[in-house]
Write a structure and sequence with these properties.
Elements (H helix, E strand, L loop, with lengths): L1 E9 L9 H11 L2 E9 L8 E5 L8 H14 L6 E5 L2 H13 L3 E5 L7 H9 L2 E4 L12 E3 L20 E5 L8 H13 L5 E5 L7 H13 L6 E5 L3 H9 L3 E4 L8 H8 L3 E4 L5 H4 L3 H4 L6 H12 L3 H18 L2 H14 L1
């Protein structure tokens, strides 16, 4: 199999997209050749059968230059690939889909978001197949959809040490209103008033668009006298996230994106108990759904769920953590995901 991958960024140190470096490396194990077209490139260390071609974002090139480079690469490298895997950006399917169809390339799109826009509708018509981790992560009705589970490196995200202190909470995600950090901060305030001591680390950077939102959150923490309990860590390279997870006892996700957040599964793989208001998390929680899911925007419900987790015995926490880890091993294992994707291409 000779595969072309189109993605936003190849950089193993990126706080948001660093994980995809591992995906490319896993694809390389099963492919004769992997060619990657990426909007921007940073540091990477990939197998010898992988070629990375950047559209030039890291050099500050214009959108017109990106587009010209894109067409140059898909044409000049046309003999180096038979199949196309577009990661999260349906606009690349819109740009290249007709050319790929004419030249006999099989087109696949990985997409995980509740948003359904015009670009996605056009891309759906051009693709041969579509991949998503859960049915909630792809809201456009199509017969092309394959629910594959997510891809978590379970060797990297290993079980944490059981000696972590109770009440050490972590949340991970880019700072933006859709992540709903306000609810989490309000829940910590409720617990403080109940004399429940919590230490929360918020990992994630913020785009320039949301710098004011980040300032508002920090001011809110200060106004509520929670500065000693809530720490804004900032952006953390993907390779370092596992260390923070291993030092934590509980992971909380207040995101309202509607798709299964990769960070939830990474925490589960480390054996952390996870609380989430994301609808797509219900299925991965299994028998613990009622205990680990809280209503979106409901800080009181979240605070009560946190208290319940803190009150668990060490054996109860351990057993729940192990069960959550097994869910990731069974249904969201990176090695198995790549095998599924390749098998689906072979059936087209």
């Amino acid at each position: 199999m000779k595969l072309l991958i189109v993605t936003q960024k190849i950089d193993k140190n990126d706080d948001i997209l660093g994980f995809f470096h591992g995906w490319v490396a896993e694809f390389a194990k099963h492919c004769e050749k992997v060619t990657v077209i990426t909007l921007g490139a940073g540091e990477y260390d990939l197998p010898r059968n992988v070629e990375v071609l950047s559209l030039g974002k890291e050099e500050g090139k214009s959108c017109l230059k990106y587009t010209l480079n894109f067409y140059k690469y898909i044409w000049s490298k046309r003999k180096d690939y038979d199949d196309v895997f577009v990661h999260m950006n349906p606009e690349y399917v819109v740009l290249g889909g007709i050319f790929w169809r004419i030249t006999g390339k099989k087109i696949g799109l990985w997409y995980m978001h509740k948003s359904v826009n015009f670009k996605l509708r056009i891309a759906e018509k051009l693709t041969h197949t579509i991949f998503s981790a859960t049915k909630e992560s792809f809201r456009l009705k199509t017969k092309k959809l394959n629910i594959t589970g997510h891809g978590i490196d379970i060797n990297k995200f290993s079980l944490r040490n059981e000696s972590v202190s109770v009440g050490k909470i972590i949340t991970i995600g880019r700072i933006s209103p859709i992540k709903d950090y306000d609810t989490l901060i309000d829940a910590i305030e409720i617990l403080q008033k109940d004399n429940v001591r919590i230490q929360l680390d918020i990992l994630g950077g913020s785009r320039s668009l949301y710098q004011n939102y980040l300032k508002e959150l920090k001011q809110k923490v200060k106004d509520k006298n929670l500065s000693d309990q809530i720490n804004f860590v900032g952006a953390v390279p993907n390779n370092d996230i596992v260390d923070y997870l291993h030092q934590s006892d509980l992971f909380i996700n207040t995101s309202q994106t509607g798709s299964l957040d990769k960070a939830i599964l990474e925490a589960m793989a480390c054996g952390l108990i996870v609380l989430s208001s994301n609808d797509s998390s219900k299925n991965v929680f299994g028998k613990y759904k009622d205990r680990l899911f809280f209503e979106s925007g409901d800080s009181l419900d979240l605070s009560q769920k946190i208290s319940e987790v803190i009150s668990l015995t060490s054996n109860e926490r351990k057993n729940i953590g192990l069960d959550l880890r097994r869910e990731v091993e069974k249904n969201h294992n990176l090695e198995e995901l790549i095998k599924k994707i390749i098998f689906i291409y072979q059936k087209i």
